[in-house]
Amino acid sequence: MTTTTGTRPRTAPRDHEGRLSGRLVLVSLSALLAPAALFAVSLLVTGGEPNLQILITLASFLLTGLIVGGIGLSRLATTRYRLTGDRFEVSAGLLFRSRHSIPLVRVRGIDITAHPVHRLFGLTTLHLDTGSGQGGAARRGVRLDGITEDQAAELRRLILEGSDTAHAADSDSLISELDRSWLRYAPLTVWGVGTVLAAAGTGYRTLHEMKIDPLELGVVQDLVRRFGSVPLWFGLLVTVLAVVALGAACSTLTFIENWSGYELRRGEGGVLRVRRGLLATRSVSMEEHRLRGLELVEPLPLRWAGGARLNAVTTGLGDRDENRRRRALTPAVPRPEALTIAAQILPPTGLAVWEPRDPAVRSLPAQRDLTERELLDGRELLERRGLGAHPRVALRRRVNQALTASVLIAAIPAGLGLWLGPAFVITGAITCLVLAPVLTALARSAYRSLGHAIRGPYLVTAYGAFARRTVVLRRDGVIGWSITRSPFQRRTGLLTLGATTAAGDGIYRIRDVSVDQGLTLAETALPGLLAPFIERRP
Question: Contact at 8 Å (CB) between 158 and 16?
Fold first, then answer.
């Protein structure tokens, strides 16, 4: 599905001013619910006899809730916003008054989020990202926390009308929406297991701080009486399976929370809008003229199941951490579906600005003569077929790293065996025998993931062992090259070429290519940029 675009002049929005919603009072009072719930739980755990440590902890939580509620009420009383001409102004503060004035042409993104408590009272948070500054408020832009959904929608419309958006879509068009069959990919992540372990550790620490020994709880004692006599290996196996099952359930619930109601739309003004979330709704806007490319991510479990995720490589999403939270265009979906969405986001391109004529340039893998074929869409750009192969010495490097890691890990129990007995030495030997083939297989997978190409106006790079990543990046979005060579790479004639850009992660690397491959690729992608730094051999 493609949308025709045209040029639309920027128009100044009409004057508009307002304040936060009065419902923010209810949100502030809800901060007192957590201490009350914690007090009820503590009474239930201790049988109605809380000790002094519990009362002190609850008092600290209550004080924190009062402070948070007071801050919310002060924001309601003092925050005002105003949209006038070509600027957006926000003033806030009780003791220390602050005022932000942002030119609309500096707005890089508009996000609307609503956490569960906000949704309960029909409130949202509007975040304007200016894409400027190195830290603090300058980097975060401006937030209006506690306006109604209608206020947020109206503000976003007015700001987009006044922002420097050069292309306008004829109408709002749907690119993709949630398919319930995608839920089968939800358990295929290791983050769920990590969440279970982190929750268990946090719960243990909280009970310990309250002078409650988790091992003395009735539930734990009952489990010990029932299963205390089973063999150790069986108990460990059941524990691992239980943690994995809980992790899969946690991953599924996280998927449902994050991606329920998912829609990817191309809105008016050439804006890609991602809306998702069950309890906490999120709406992220990305202007297409700031889009520099796409990233197809295939983690190992997803790759086995034929799934992938699609991310945007764009400017205007904040710093690196914020960019990683906001860049997702799709959840885990079937790989063909991800490529179909990519084809709609990156429609067929026209002729590049320049046409290569050098025979050495044409020898590059997957280099197309644009006079013979002019159209390349996102699907063709992300396909792995035709990517250039990397030298075999790169495979040897990865296998050596895998074997070295196996030996170093196995050396830990083997070294302890010199003092603690031969059982640890045997454990170390078994560890090495198990890890060596597993890590070697991962090393071969990492080598097979490597690839690079120049396809029309785009540079393509692929890499990754646990998570295979294929990135297409506009050549005119590359602002420089980073060339790194480790001692091993220098000895074997390899280098890692990094394309630096203002979008996405900031640098995208083409790993372990030969010196001739790397320099030729850089010169082809951006002719003349490396010329002053290259010494040509006679």
Answer: yes
Residues 119, 257: Cα–Cα separation, whole Å: 14
Tell whether pTM > 0.85.
no
* 3-class SS shares of the chain: helix, strand, coil, % to 5: 50, 25, 25
Q: How far apart are CA 204 and CA 198, in angstroms?
A: 10
Identify the burial level of 423 via C-beta atoms within 10 angstroms of its C-beta, where 0-12 means exposed, 13-18 middle and 19 or more buried. Answer: exposed
Q: Rounded to an integer, what distance in angstroms lies between the CA atom of residue 132 and that of residue 138?
A: 6
Write the DSSP string, 221-284: HHHHHHHTTS-HHHHHHHHHHHHHHHHHHHHHHHHHHHHTT-EEEEETTTEEEEEE-SSSEEEE
Contacts of residue 141, Cβ cutoff 8 Å, sequence gap at least 6: 102, 127, 128, 129, 130, 131, 318
> Tens digit of pLDDT for each residue in 172-230?
788 999 999 999 999 888 777 777 777 777 777 777 666 666 667 666 677 777 766 66
- Within 8 A by CB and 6+ apart from 480, the residues are 500, 529
> Among 59, 27, 39, which Cα is nearest to 147's?
27
